[in-house]
Amino acid sequence: xxxxxxxxxxxxxxxxxxxxxxxxxxxxxxxxxxxxxxxxxxxxxxxxxxxxxxxxxxxxxxxxxxxxxxxxxxxxxxxxxxxxxxxxxxxxxxxxxxxxxxxxxxxxxxxxxxxxxxxxxxxxxxxxxxxxxxxxxxxxxxxxxxxxxxxxxxxxxxxxxxxxxxxxxxxxxxxxxxxxxxxxxxxxxxxxxxxxxxxxxxxxxxxxxxxxxxxxxxxxxxxxxxxxxxxxxxxxxxxxxxxxxxxxxxxxxxxxxxxxxxxxxxxxxxxxxxxxxxxxxxxxxxxxxxxxxxxxxxxxxxxxxxxxxxxxxxxxxxxxxxxxxxxxxxxxxxxxxxxxxxxxxxxxxxxxxxxxxxxxxxxxxxxxxxxxxxxxxxxxxxxxxxxxxxxxxxxxxxxxxxxxxxxxxxxxxxxxxxxxxxxxxxxxxxxxxxxxxxxxxxxxxxxxxxxxxxxxxx
Length: 458
Hints:
It is a single chain. By secondary structure, the protein is α+β, with helices and mostly antiparallel strands. Helices cover 34% and strands 26% of the residues. The chain has an 8-stranded antiparallel beta sheet with strand order 13-12-9-10-11-14-21-19, sandwiched between helices. A hairpin with a 2-residue loop joins strand 10 and strand 11 (236-242). The termini are far apart.
């Protein structure tokens, strides 16, 4: 391992996760923190802490100059970006590399190509991977958008080229809506990503969200099978699992092989995820985008393969070639992750920051809770509301769901509202238990069942 001191340019549960992986490899850690985050768990665990700016993300975690200066001053020889913030910003990668420091992830040009959703789509088509019918690259203006929509037929989906996390996406049913929503999507994309480029795709009404985890060393690529992330609220994943057992085996194999082929075509280095839509009505699958970083939901893949993906990122960034062949990778059992957010489901999922007055994580066989919490920690209001990820596994999906129910019952977070009660309801829902869901299922369910219920008081 050539990395000896790792700078973590992120916060929250992923920072804790990275510190644990670095420790296992004997790497010292430097934790970046905004002025609001100096009491977070990652700061208590890291070997060193550097305050990089004010609470607002734009003045700390998104400030390239401030982060690069902190990296240089710390003497770190590598930077892990986590997810979100600057993790898919090629300008940040170039600045880190110009400072003579290793970036834990793919190179800037790969991020430009595969992080840009429109360019990634072009690469997929060149690799022979099916894509959703849509625009050839970015749409130029509203007239161009009208022409593309007429060609592929309504409804269509508008998406941000530099997007992620569901931001900048609009479903458009007709031309009048298109004229209204294109400017909105551009404004949201500009605010979220600093890039208002858009592209368009046909909207698939009965779609499942499937994604494939890959690892590459710049030459060789392996896949670590697929995940299903169809349970989404406002296009934000809340429940993820692996494998996607509701898909035919031949489809799962074809998906995974196409992901590895596309990643190999672009010489991918590091951990990445290729995302697809699966049409439940036709049995077709389509590539939609690639995330050139570690994913929030990576633990379910770790649970079924036994491979530590963050350690793998560090080993590849440290110069190792892939030590695994495709035949070395096996999957066992079934894993489920549910995201625990500091939100009040009874009040339209309003953020619920505040003091955690009581806390107990579930324990037991095949149960894992990745979190930033401890008793006495104050959840701050400035960032994403994700405060933990509860991950369980079982011999099969049914056993994993039963284990999830027990783990949710054992989870105790007092003083703030969380989304744990929502997952308790979902784990008992007949459609969820049968796997009869799609990317729009949760929104419809909440209009009927979910909106009538509320979680316990904090």
